[in-house]
Structure formats: C-alpha cells, structure tokens
UniProtKB/TrEMBL annotation:
Entry GO terms, CC: type II protein secretion system complex
Gene3D superfamilies linked: Glycoprotein, Type 4 Pilin
NCBIfam families for this protein: IV_pilin_GFxxxE (TIGR02532)
Coiled coil (residue ranges): none
Protein name in the entry: General secretion pathway protein G
Superkingdom of source: Bacteria
GO biological process, one term: protein secretion by the type II secretion system
PROSITE patterns: PROKAR_NTER_METHYL
Keywords, sorted A to Z: Membrane, Methylation, Transmembrane, Transmembrane helix
InterPro entries to which the protein is assigned, alphabetical: Bac_GSPG_pilin, N_methyl_site, Pilin-like
Entry's transmembrane regions: 20-44
PANTHER family for this protein: GENERAL SECRETION PATHWAY PROTEIN G
Length: 179
C-alpha cells in the first residue's frame, strides 16, 4: 500500500491525530458551553440568595408579631435604624439589630450572608445588611442593598422608599411608605 501511494504521489504522512484547526474548534465549543453553564449557575445562586432573604424577612416578621402579642409593642430602637452588620452606615448595636427578639421569639436574627451588593448607585460602597427601625408602635425591617436583579411594585416585599435596592416588611403600609 505504501508503494502504491508513493507511485501516485500521495504523501506518506500519518493520518493519526487531529489538525490544529480541529483542536481550536473543539476548544472554542467547550469555552462557549462553559460560559453558558457558569451564567446559569450564577443566576441560580442569585435566585437562592433572594429567596433566602425573603424567607428571613417573613420569619422575623412573624417573630415580631409574636413579640407584639406578648408585650403590646414592638422592640423599640427609639426611632433609630439598627443594622445587622458592623461598619454599616447606621448604628449596628453590636449586631443585635432587634432588641429582645432572639432567642425568645426567633432562634437567631438573620445576618447578611455577604455576596454581591445591589448594583443601585445608592449602594456604592455600602454593605448589604438587615436594618430595623421601630418606635414601639410601628416597625420597618428591610434587607438593604441585598436584593439582586429586578422586581416590580407588585412584589410582596417591595419597598416604596428604597424601591431599587431594598425589600421590606412593616407593621403598616403607611410605615413602609414613610420610613
């Protein structure tokens, strides 16, 4: 066979292996598929963080209602904002941002899990944190600079004051609209 190839002028190079072009095409396809998978994983993580923050808001709101039933008032901060995170722009009260609630009404107050901060301009240089404010009669609890993605005013946790970078629960809707 080798002699026949030589007579008709066919090269004797080995046909084993891939050409450089074939390898580059395969590597490009793998890179594109990896990018798609990583984007999907990133979106799934974002949705999971958002879902956890909403669950935290609901759990703390239920604990606040239980506290109110027992004490005829909400845990007061004297009208000041308390934050779950040290270094936040508002008083952090050593991380106990809702006085006297844990462990009697909730095992532990949720803390920010880190992660990305909202892309809203107001969050530039800020930390995502749970913030609480109460005068004893009313309260507002929010996750500040934590929500990622987009949402609308029909969202259950929509905050009319900090609409592009916070979710909240309040004792009354008028409190959510004014604090």
């Amino acid at each position: 066979m080798l002699e026949l190839k030589k007579r008709i002028g066919v090269s004797c190079k080995s046909d084993k292996g891939f050409t450089l072009i074939e390898l580059l095409v395969v590597m490009s396809i793998i890179a594109i598929m990896s990018t798609i998978v990583l984007a999907s994983v990133s979106m799934a993580r974002q949705k999971a963080r958002n879902a956890q923050q909403k669950t935290d808001l609901k759990s703390v709101a239920l604990a606040l209602q239980s506290y109110y039933i027992d004490n005829s008032s909400y845990p007061s901060t004297g009208g000041a904002w308390y934050s779950s995170e040290a270094g936040d722009a508002v008083s952090n009260n050593e991380g106990v941002y809702i006085p006297n609630l844990a462990p009697s009404y909730i095992p532990a107050l949720p803390r920010s899990r880190g992660g990305p901060v909202s892309a809203a301009p107001a969050c530039s240089g800020a930390k995502n944190a749970y913030r609480y404010r109460s005068d004893g009669t009313n309260y507002k609890l929010m996750i500040y600079c934590g929500p990622e993605g987009t949402w609308t005013s029909s969202d259950e946790y929509y905050d009319p004051v900090y609409s592009s970078y916070a979710w909240s629960v309040c004792s009354r809707s008028s409190v959510c609209a004014s604090w």
